Amino acid sequence: MTDNEKRTILHMDLDTFFVSCERLIDSKLNNKAVLIGGVSDRGVVAACSYEARAFGVHSAMPMKMARQLCPEAIVLRGNSATYTKYSELVTDIIKEEVPLYEKSSIDEFYIDMTGMDKFFGCLSLATELREKIMRETGLPISFGMSGNKTVSKIATGEVKPNNQIKIERGTEKEYLGPLSVRKIPMVGEKTFRSLCDLGLKRIHSIQEMPMEMVSKVFGKSGAMIWKKANGIDNSPVVAYRERKSISTERTFDKDTTDITKLTGIMSSMAENLAFQLRRGGKLTACVSVKIRYSDFNTHTLQKRIPYAAADHVLIPLIMELFKKIYNRRLLVRLIGVKYSHLVGGAHQINLFEDSSKMMDLYQAMDEMRDKYGDRAVVRAVGMGTKSISRFNPFDGEPPPLLPNRRR
Amino acid sequence: MKFIVSSTSLLKQLQAINGVLSSNNTLPILDNFLFEIGKNYLIISASDLETTISAKITIEAKEDGNIAIPARLLLDTLKTFPEQPLTFDVNLKTNSIEISSDFGKYKLAGHNADEFPKLPTIESPASIVLKPEVLVDALTSTLFATGNDELRPVMSGVLCEISPDDVTFVATDAHKLVKYRRTDSSADELTSFILPKKPLNLLKSILGNIEGDVKIEYNKSNALFSFGHVNLICRLIDGNYPNYSAVIPDKNPNKLVIDRATLLGSIKRVSIFSNKTTHQVKLNIKGSELSISAEDLDYSNEANERLTCEYKGEDLKIGFNARFLIEMLSNMDSEAIVIELSTPNKAGIILPHNEDKDNKGKEVLMLIMPVMLNT
């Protein structure tokens, strides 16, 4: 057996995490249908209790539809600070108990338990860990255990809520076979539909195909899908992931063509992200803007730039890109800004274009923001826009998931 | 038309001027060397339209005539010959060339010499004479500091300022700047022009083994360097050079004196541990201790070294791109250097610490912009 074949990987997932947190705060919510997410008409469901799921509600569904399906549900706006706090409580317990873990999102963890069998027995250790988390935080959590990340994650999803499972080595294919191909991580709505069109509904069918055939249809990702379907996944548990990009976006409650408002938001998003870069000691080499019109046509435009983290470099660039991309005089539904190709480093001061006064100003502004919050000082043009950012992207934590990305 | 030339002396000259040829010429004729044959002399030229360089060698010839010969083909052939006389037989009607060596004959198709762009003539030039070693020193000290930004073409060249008192060479890419001044050369009139990087690099490599002086003739649009049997003429960069003297601080209060080689060695070592793209290092000066540190969070790499130095001024933390520091320190020749600093966001100045005045008439000033560190 090679090293990869004798690993033990545990996947832990907090059940209906946001709902569980709310229930800890208010026990009246217990055993009731609860929806968490945007409360406006544009809002989507970020999380819902199992009681609500019985009505056909699922996360990422428009809130409007969810309310129609389940009129008696209690709707909450949710508070990401609270969830982050509870998530950290759980992280602390895991950190104390295991040698190597990866926090892949606010409510999910991968734990590498390889070698623990010698002393403790992996399953009993995992069970103890799960009980400890539930005892100390009051949050229900489920886990799946197997030889790799993919199988463990699928297994967790199958046994939820409030349960645990161990897939014995060698039985992975058997276990995955009868499940829907939709259960494979990385198979989204589109891939699922293409697979269905090919008559591949069960993982079993993919297992029986030669890998080459799947990769012919889906290219590189085809090989990945085939491997995952066969319970093969050599990806390691990575303790800390460096952020490769930071971004922010805003969906409007009502579509708009108000150019003053749009440029104001663009500018303050660019400004806030530039501050995040400087605070994290990062420079960006690629900026991009995104715009979604009311007809859901989405455009992005990006530009490679010399490494930068200064407002007076980035904001004009973003504005220039935005001007280029917003040319359709149509109602706008969403706008966003992204900085990618990040590297560690600080702004290289320019002999002719930067003055030391301006550099001192940046440092003073950043210090104020560090002390009194992200929006302690902002440019006047961005004053009207509500809070754009709320978290430090470079603290090693995974980003809080946007509701429309959850699934 | 026939001429006889020594294979190695031809190769030597061709290799010297070959550097001007670029691989992506707009005009196909520029992939050729121009051969101009006169009574017992041969002038070979290569050009990229911006820069033309020509060299003269003595040969045996009876007739005049001009022909353009494909450069790559000719060079590749010549490289394989041991020293021997080669006979070139050129048919000027068909532009075909036949080369005869001790081993055999080689035929190649040339081009009409009239297609080759004419060498610009410099009208009403002013001139200055420099020693080749002075010019090489000036170019070595400045060329590395030129910029690569196509949007700012003036900064991709070296500014040459000539006055009755001195000659000054300046290069900057807005992050670093070098000012190289000679008080032992001068001209009658006050002028300045910007020389492009490519011909200067070429000059630097050819000038290494030249005896005699280099004469520079210049007007508003062109400059001609003549030395030995070689002429190099280049178009000047048009535009206004940034006002560099306004941005060089002259009253930086904090002065640090340190051995150049020691500092260079430390920075080279420490910067290996800095981020692979940004190469940033931190200098922390306290009393007479200079500590240099770098870290790369992506790989958990970290390095820290301590040096003793002579320091007069306030304690200071300042960040720099290590590559700039390394380039500057390796292009200085004094044993000790002075680093003059002000605040962490203002320019630092590096000067030779001249206790021994070996370099009479030479003044070098290097300026480096810091990076904005988080407080």
Q: Would you spell out the secondary-structure blueprint of this structure?
A:
The complex is a heterodimer of chains A (407) and B (375).
Chain A: E1 9-14, H1 17-25, E2 34-37, E3 45-48, H2 50-53, H3 63-69, E4 74-76, H4 80-97, E5 100-105, E6 108-112, H5 122-137, E7 141-146, H6 149-159, E8 164-166, H7 172-176, H8 189-197, H9 203-208, H10 211-218, H11 220-229, E9 245-256, H12 259-279, E10 282-293, E11 298-308, H13 311-325, E12 332-340, E13 343-344, H14 356-372
Parallel strand pairs in A: 2-4, 7-8
Antiparallel strand pairs in A: 1-6, 1-7, 2-3, 5-6, 9-12, 10-11, 10-12, 10-13
Helix pairs in contact in A: 4-5, 10-11, 12-13
Chain B: E1 2-6, H1 7-18, E2 32-38, E3 41-47, E4 51-58, E5 60-61, E6 65-70, H2 71-79, E7 85-91, E8 96-100, E9 105-109, E10 126-130, H3 132-143, E11 158-162, E12 167-172, E13 176-182, E14 191-195, H4 197-207, E15 214-218, E16 222-227, E17 230-235, H5 244-247, E18 254-259, H6 260-271, E19 280-286, E20 289-296, E21 301-308, E22 310-312, E23 316-321, H7 322-330, E24 336-341, E25 348-352, E26 362-368
Antiparallel strand pairs in B: 1-5, 1-7, 2-3, 2-6, 3-4, 4-17, 7-8, 8-9, 10-15, 11-12, 11-14, 12-13, 13-26, 15-16, 16-17, 18-22, 18-24, 19-20, 19-23, 20-21, 24-25, 25-26
Helix pairs in contact in B: 1-2, 3-4, 6-7
Structure characterization notes:
The complex is a heterodimer of chains A (407) and B (375). Chain A has 407 residues and is an alpha+beta fold. Chain A has 3 domains: 1-169, Reverse transcriptase/Diguanylate cyclase domain (Alpha-Beta Plaits); 173-229, Orthogonal Bundle (DNA polymerase, domain 1); 245-392, Dna Ligase, domain 1 (2-Layer Sandwich). Chain A has helices at residues 17-25, 50-53, 63-69, 80-97, 122-137, 149-159, 172-176, 189-197, 203-208, 211-218, 220-229, 259-279, 311-325, 356-372; strands at residues 9-14, 34-37, 45-48, 74-76, 100-105, 108-112, 141-146, 164-166, 245-256, 282-293, 298-308, 332-340, 343-344. Chain A has a 5-stranded mixed sheet. In chain A, strands 9, 10, 11, 12 and 13 form a 5-stranded antiparallel sheet that branches. In chain A, helix 6 (149-159) links the parallel strand 7 and strand 8. Chain B has 375 residues and is of the alpha+beta class. Helix content of chain B is 18%, strand content 41%. Chain B contains 7 helices and 26 strands. In chain B, the strands form 4 sheets. Chain B has a 9-stranded antiparallel sheet with strand order 14-11-12-13-26-25-24-18-22. Chain B starts with a strand and ends in a 7-residue tail after the last strand. At the A-B interface, strand 13 and helix 14 of A face loops of B.
